[in-house]
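hey so i finally got around to running the thing on that chain from the lab meeting. sorry it took forever, my laptop kept dying and i had to restart like 3 times. anyway pasting the input first so we r on the same page abt which one it is
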Amino acid sequence: MQIVQGAFPTTQVWRTLVLFSADNADSYLYRFGEALSKAQNGIVIAAVIVPDQTPELLERARATAFELESYGEGAAKCDVLIVKIDETRNDLRNLVTRGKIDLLLFDTENTAQNNLNDLPCTIAVMRGSYSNPEIRQKPIQRIVIPTAGGPATINILRMLVQLPRTFELDILYVARADQGHHEVALGNQQLKRIVQSLDAEDRINTKVVEATSPTQGILEAVANDYDLVIMGASNEGSLDRFLFGNIVDAVVRESKTPVIIARESTRPVLGGALHWLDYGLQRIIPHLSVSERAQVYMRVRRNSRPNLDYFVLMTLSAAIASLGLLQDSPAVVIGAMLVAPLMSPIVGSGMAIVLGDLRFLRYALGSALRGMFIALLVGFLIGLVAGNNNLTPEILARTEPTLIDLMIALFSGLAGAFAIAYTGAASALPGVAIAAALVPPLASSGLAYSQGRFGDGTGALLLFITNFIAISSAATLVFLAFGFRPKTSQKARRTIQQRTTRIALGLLLGIGIFLSYATYTLAKTNTINQNTYTIVQQTVEGVNTAFPAIEIEYDSLVIETDSDPSAPLVLDLTLRSTHELPIIAVQTLSDVIGQRLQDEIGLDREMILELTVINVTKPKPFEPPTPTPEPLALQ
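ok and heres what got predicted. didnt touch it at all, straight out
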């Protein structure tokens, strides 16, 4: 790809690129592209495509470019390029990427571009033969978009609804005549859902027609009433294609009205999966109107702001959580969860990601980070004041996050964002606050750090980070399904949305992989410990059988392991015995335990057995008690 003449504009706005051949400056597609660009507050660029740079071809191309330069007026005057492109996909892709193009328009008769895979922009291709000059010169006023209710229609209409009201937009559903009134009702429901999802009830007209086939219904509807037909290139009509042939091709062949086939930019595997997930959620989650979304936005943004109330509640919540953790009191810890306001800025960061609002994202993240610092500091100070106490089970329970904690945080984020956005579910917010558990891990981390337990403190901090990433990512998905997204004309915000979404998903994936490994390691350790308990108990019973006179019984076992694989495994075994254990019994116990651990669980480190024997006395109930002497009488 080589730009022979001209240059791309430097303004960072919505860009439409219209392709022309060296011998045709037909303005039909240009006028449509110009209308779309103006609706998006963007610009339109014309590119004359040449396969080589022979003098004769370049002369014709410059003549066409000169004619194209007359299109538009004033500041909206057409920017024209002459570009050498071979018939390769990479050249066209490089042109689109270099020009940061959002919409590519061309006519298959004027430009032979067949390699359209993987283009990072929306593509609109005019197909068919429309040589009638009256059709080409006629202004576009009425546009019809046939649909079966799939996501491609929504993507097309999201651009078209921005057009001025001089353009009349109709969406058409063809009901099979042999299906009866149920098919008509389904069509009306599908069209109503599409219009509601775009908040365009007063902008888009719906139309359901009955016909023997989709192709016949489309052709009859557009015969005399419309200036342009726009169809989505997707898999939504795959069943019809299998039964009745390719609908798009049939309409292109037989329609007397110009037909444009539009396709959204090619998405990577992950992006495509999220796109379909977004589409599926929109069909399940209740629709929010524009005014309702505005109220939710104001509420979330207001609650994400770090004001005096936020700092006071964070301090009190962290203090309550720290004291409850030191007392090993779950009830007090739950109370701290209900007081904490940390959920709001985390959910707010999810909304900021969806909207591509960098300023909102900065102060939502700033608010969350300040709250995190307060909770850590309060926990650390209370830990210092309380003295050098051992970490309670409530604290230790938060020092080893697992994949289950990540799943809990994800579902908590989904529930929290849904409850915040949908007022009918607001009663669930206290339960969400308890499930999310944001402040207790921070308080646990501060308490652990105050006692020099840096490993446990880092583990608790990792649990909070897991909750933060998962809740924010889940909230992003919910708000996207509710219809929160930047407008197509807000190119900078859409770029920020894409980048921040990729970062959030990357962090979520990274923490998921790490916790998966941690969960596997923990499960493996628990299995080894459980097998060790069983082996030790069985060995004690065997030694007791070999030395029946000493009557030993298993009491307890504490397993001390170190992350260093070269460190020894310490078994702190406590036994009960009525007699002193001979050295041969202790040696036998140690040897048998070590050998079985090596054979059955593959122990590859040194084992140290620390044995504690508790001497007990067993009464003999069948012997008469020892007589007690009579006390002497006092003289």
